[in-house]
Design brief:
two-stranded antiparallel ribbon
Length: 141
């Protein structure tokens, strides 16, 4: 019969199990909500789709602009055209992917802009001004 000795190390995100002299380590993400399943080459499905979209844009820009401008310039245009699409696959801000972030920026800055104003309220000064003796002291100065 094989005996399993389970041992959890404090401060580590690995579970180690010992099986008759062999140590088996299982990596566990510290933040389980950030887990992403990798599909191909360590990329998630979202990253893979945006990478393929960037490649498609670059190829389209290359064949579309090759007859119009030189080869060196077409390479730069292809990179510049593909960069935003490739970036969208990897960009996150406060847990929002790029498209949700862009929608939030458009909503807050373009569709519904508003200025936030701050009006401080000093309760301590109001309490002090309510008392007559303090009002006299403050008016003497």
């Amino acid at each position: 019969m094989l005996a399993w000795n389970k041992k959890k190390c404090k401060g580590h995100s690995k579970n180690t199990e010992k099986l008759e002299g062999f140590i088996i380590e299982v990596k566990i993400n510290k933040e389980i909500q950030r887990y992403q399943e990798s599909i191909l080459f360590g990329l998630s499905l979202r990253q893979m789709v945006f990478a393929l979209l960037a490649i498609g844009v670059a190829v389209g820009a290359y064949f579309g602009l090759k007859p119009l401008i030189g080869a060196a310039e077409v390479g730069w245009v292809c990179m510049l055209a593909a960069f935003p699409f490739a970036m969208c696959g990897f960009f996150t801000y406060n847990g929002m992917p790029a498209e949700r972030f862009l929608l939030a920026v458009i909503r807050s800055e373009i569709l519904c802009p508003r200025t936030l104003s701050y009006h401080p309220q000093n309760l301590y000064a109001e309490v002090l001004l309510d008392s007559n003796s303090m009002r006299e002291v403050l008016t003497l100065d």
